[in-house]
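Comment on this:
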Amino acid sequence: MEIAVCRAADVALLDECVGSPGADSSHARRFARQEAGGGVYLVAWLDGRPVGHGEVVWGGCADPEVRAALPGCPELNGLGVWPPELRSRGIGGALIRRAEELARERGRTALGLGVAADNPRAAHLYARLGYRPLTDYVDRWSYVDHDGVTRECVDPCTFLIKELPSGHLDVKPS
């Protein structure tokens, strides 16, 4: 498995293999944000096909309560692994570790992510990797379905945070 930064040529393959909830491509939106400098869109590859993704959003979570509680903290957003039978095989953890590396490389001291109240499997992974609850919030997002209707989604979530070690060891001269 390889974790790589999304390229323009990957977007169509992501749409084909992973899909988006509606008629518009969430992959194209995430890639456009990356191109504008607002984030990094990571893709997990296995045998030449995308099997997962996650986006590090440098500006942080869009929810005002989360932003107030932790201003300037980047967010790992849209983490997912497909197809479902590939879950619990280390792909999500590898995406998270790469996101943490990118945040540290940019001098960030923490990384946050949201987990839906109805996703205990993901919450367990995040806790195992050292993420702790910061605050509850309601994630609100929308998409345009295949009939052209805008669908609003409302998910009760908990925002989790992990302090990131600098990666530098303090070595005292002998």
Remarks:
- The CA atoms of residues 6 and 109 lie 24 Å apart.
- The longest helix spans residues 91-105.
- The domain at 2-163 is CATH 3.40.630.30 (Aminopeptidase).
- Strands lie at 2-5, 39-46, 49-57, 75-81, 110-116, 132-144, 150-163.
